Amino acid sequence: QERFLSEEKAFLSEAPTVSTNSGANAGFSAGATATGPVAGFDPVLISLIRRAMPNLVAYDLAGVQPMNAPTGLIFAMRSRFVDGTNANSMLGTEALFNEPDSAFSGQTSQNGNSSGFVDASTGLGTTAQSGSNPGALNPSTDATQVAYDVGQGMRTDESENLGESGKSFNEMAFSIEKITVTAKSRALKAEYSLELAQDLKAIHGLNAEAELANILSTEILAEINREVIRTIYKTAETGAQVNVASAGTFNLDVDSNGRWSVEKFKGLLFQIERDANAIAQRTRRGKGNIILCSADVASALTMAGVLDYTPALNANLNVDDTGNTFAGVINGKYRVYIDPFAANSAATQYYVIGYKGTSPYDAGLFYCPYVPLQMVRAVGQDTFQPKIGFKTRYGMVENPFSQGT
């Protein structure tokens, strides 16, 4: 504001530079010896107009883990079932992640029969657990009950014979897995002349080196930011898989079953909740709590509460592609970020929901800075004109647990 007032004051008092050879009318009177007024610089109305720089959201979406060497390792430990039937690899599927197998410790490695409430027609006392959705059970139909089986403990006589021939214990173990992170580089340079620096300083009061340094550093950081966001887009699983007309697409007019806009937008909120629940089941780390979406989707989430008859929904989002990319918190738990480069004129809008915990280790994607952004100055050996350059090195890797079981 102070700079604007000073520029405005200078503009109001500024006048064209003319020859003051012999008074105000020098060069025009009959007795003037000069050839006429000498034109100067045009008055400056607005010193300089610049584009708004893009905002960065990568640090809010990815876990940040600095590197102290050009390469690094990330280790992960998985609990495993031991597969005695596979001689090439004793390690079976991952344990302590999906639903526990209720039959594993209640039977021998030879899959002996479990006893207890034995009723084959209802799936009790079976040798292996099967089925994952108890909501599909129908007490009046035996055929549907067998699809959901229950493994139970072994008989006492079987337990006493464990370890003998044909009665081996079931075993468990763990595996240590690793992912290699390798630092990659980004670099940009700029050149300018001493004359340019002098004129820019005289007319606009700006430092040429500082302005070019700001452009280079902002471009590098913006590119890293887009790398993170596009990586998230490419690796995210497709949501809206069930109870929709077309898997992977939530149609507001068809799938929300709403009569007017607010009901449709609330249907979108319910779908976001379902996708957040799916993240909790897929990761076993936590429910989805971050939303990255286009501005139209964020506006729809806002209107779901603002347009309601009783606006009790906490959805006061600040949706602006040119402002802060963090729009706000919805329902008290979802942090909403806007992708400022999403095509809002497109017919199809989108959202990506993800999870990031309180710990920097608790994220699906890791950004690993190695060498921070460094500035280098030089002078041309023939032109003696200044040059500047920026370099940075960093790694980017997925969470090792994201590779499945």
Described by strand count, sense and barrel closure, the largest sheet is: 4 strands, mixed
Helical content class:
10-25%
Q: Please write the CATH class name of the largest domain.
A: Alpha Beta
Radius of gyration: 34 Å
Q: Count every beta strand, where a strand is a DSSP E run of 2 or more residues.
A: 13
Q: What string gives the helices and strands in order? A: HHEEEEHEHEEHHHEHEEEEE
Can you describe what's shown?
The chain is α/β, with parallel strands linked by helices. The chain folds into three domains: 1-47, no CATH class; 50-70 and 183-405, phage-related protein like fold, CATH 3.90.1690; 75-177, no CATH class. The chain contains eight helices and 13 strands. It has helices at 2-12, 58-61, 142-145, 156-160, 194-204, 208-235, 261-283, 295-306; strands spanning 63-64, 71-82, 91-94, 124-126, 150-151, 172-182, 184-191, 290-293, 326-330, 334-338, 351-354, 365-379, 386-398. It has a four-stranded mixed β-sheet with strand order 1-12-13-7. Strands 9-10-8-11 form a four-stranded mixed β-sheet, with helices on one face. A hairpin with a 6-residue loop joins strand 12 and strand 13. Helix 7 (261-283) packs across helix 8. The longest helix is centred in the middle third of the chain and has 28 residues, at 208-235.
